[in-house]
Design a protein that fits this description.
The complex is a heterodimer of chains A (about 120) and B (about 300). Chain A is mainly beta. Chain A is built from no helices and twelve strands. Classes of the chains: A mainly beta (about 120), B alpha/beta (about 300). Strand 2 of chain A pairs antiparallel with strand 1 of chain B, so a sheet runs across the interface.
């Protein structure tokens, strides 16, 4: 299933936990004061974009990536903190992991909260 | 998909066991739902809200100890106000109540909860109370903060239809609402829910603000407003017993319309449901296999 519809999550004070296995073309997350945790087992041959805005909350994205999918990430931070954990060590605020024609783009903007991106290899 | 696999899932989820710890039972069922969805690699979104739920300690005697269940949301002494709870009217004075519509003489049912010290007992025990001419009892209600979790599974992005099932249950809960939960888990596991989503609601039976039956639906609307507004919403509550149909009983509609104004409810009409409602008899023996088979087919016909 390759949905073109945008998957939008807007979180103000609550806690949200998302677990996805299917191909998401776009996932937009806006987290203002709550906690959001996303686990995404990226399917093969799946390209898409995750856009995350964290204002005062904490957001954690755990990606499980198969071979053949490249992860491109770009994090901008105003007052917030971020952390990128790749299978081969820590990452910086922008970079790539893996290779392949399918590209998963992660774009995060942190104003005052915290953001953590953890990339893991396929089980 | 068959009746047997649905009943096996009901057992796996623990709906057939008698529990008075409503909070723990709800939390355990939630964990099992997540376990089943993870096993089947079904996508889902969980939204959590803070809520308050009751934990009870109680006793009821008329010379000897009587079979009983808590039906009040306020601590205090029980008084000799005998009430038939099958009219579903909520009272604010201490009472002891029974459900005259209950199918069994010795079972206990709590169709509603009162804003007062209140305990439910069996029809048989009511005879004892009347013989003794007095009753002694007390109820202690502890209000506990809980994490109210609603889980949307299946096509969480753009579902055509959202099927709503509450997963929490009072006491046992095979008909209310274990069979519906098990049916949709099986449908999700088997990949039969393709274009639709299933919304599993938590703590829908009792939360302590503002009315005890509304908060779950209000928070679910808050959490999944866009999805609910852009899809057809079908509530499935209490199947596999008797006369299941798309119903218009106000008891269902009042609570569920907090999700969305226009909804359809597929369930057991209240006049039949009262025979086992929120009772110690809502177990595997209450299932009508013939009715359940029909209900499974009708639910599957509703899938997009």
């Amino acid at each position: 299933m390759n949905n073109t519809k945008v998957f939008t999550i807007s979180n103000v004070l609550g806690n949200i936990y998302v677990k996805a296995y299917k191909c998401l073309k776009r996932m937009d997350v806006e987290n203002y004061m709550g906690n959001v945790r996303i686990t995404y087992e990226v399917p093969k041959n799946c390209s898409g974009t995750l856009t995350i805005l964290t204002d005062m909350g904490s957001t954690e994205v755990n990606l499980i990536v198969p071979k053949g999918v490249k992860v491109e990430y770009e994090i901008s931070s105003n007052l917030g903190s971020y952390e990128v954990i790749l299978p081969n060590g820590k990452g910086k605020n922008e970079g790539t992991y893996g290779s392949g024609q399918s590209v998963l783009r992660v774009r995060a903007n942190i104003n005052m909260g915290s953001f953590k991106l953890v990339v893991g290899e396929e089980r | 998909m068959n009746v047997r696999s649905v009943i096996e899932t009901v057992r796996e989820l623990g709906y057939d066991s008698m529990r008075t710890d409503y909070i723990e039972k709800t939390e355990e069922i939630y964990s099992k739902i997540v376990e089943i969805l993870d096993r089947a690699e079904v996508s889902y979104v969980v939204k959590e809200f803070p809520a308050l739920a009751p934990e009870w300690e109680w006793e009821l005697k008329a010379g000897e100890e009587l079979p009983s269940l808590p039906s009040g949301l306020v601590s205090g002494e029980i008084e000799m106000n005998l009430k038939d709870s099958s009219d579903l009217r909520v009272f604010d004075f201490p009472n002891v109540n029974f459900n005259s519509h209950l199918r069994y003489f010795e079972e206990v049912s709590t169709p509603i909860f009162h804003w007062a010290p209140s305990i439910s007992t069996s029809k048989k025990a009511v005879v004892k109370i009347l013989e003794k001419g007095k009753v002694e009892g007390r109820l202690k209600v502890k209000v506990r903060p809980v994490s109210l979790k609603h889980l949307l599974a299946g096509n969480v992005e753009n579902p055509k239809k959202v099927f709503v099932v509450h997963y929490d249950a009072l006491w046992k809960g095979v008909i209310d609402n274990g069979l519906s939960v098990a049916l949709f888990l099986n449908l999700l596991e088997e990949g039969k829910v393709k274009e639709d989503a299933v919304l599993f609601l938590g703590f829908s039976e009792v939360t302590l603000w503002p009315k005890y039956w509304e908060y779950s639906m209000m928070t679910a609307r808050e959490g999944f407003r866009d999805v609910l507004d852009n899809s057809e919403v079908i509530v499935v509550d209490c199947i596999g017993y008797k006369g299941t149909d798309f119903i218009s009983d106000k008891e269902y509609l009042e609570a569920y319309s907090a999700l969305k104004e226009e909804i359809r409810v597929f369930g057991t009409p209240m006049k039949y449901l009262l025979e086992i409602y929120h009772s110690t008899a809502d177990d595997l023996n209450a299932i009508s296999l013939e009715q359940l088979e029909k209900d499974i087919k009708r639910v599957m016909d509703e899938l997009s």
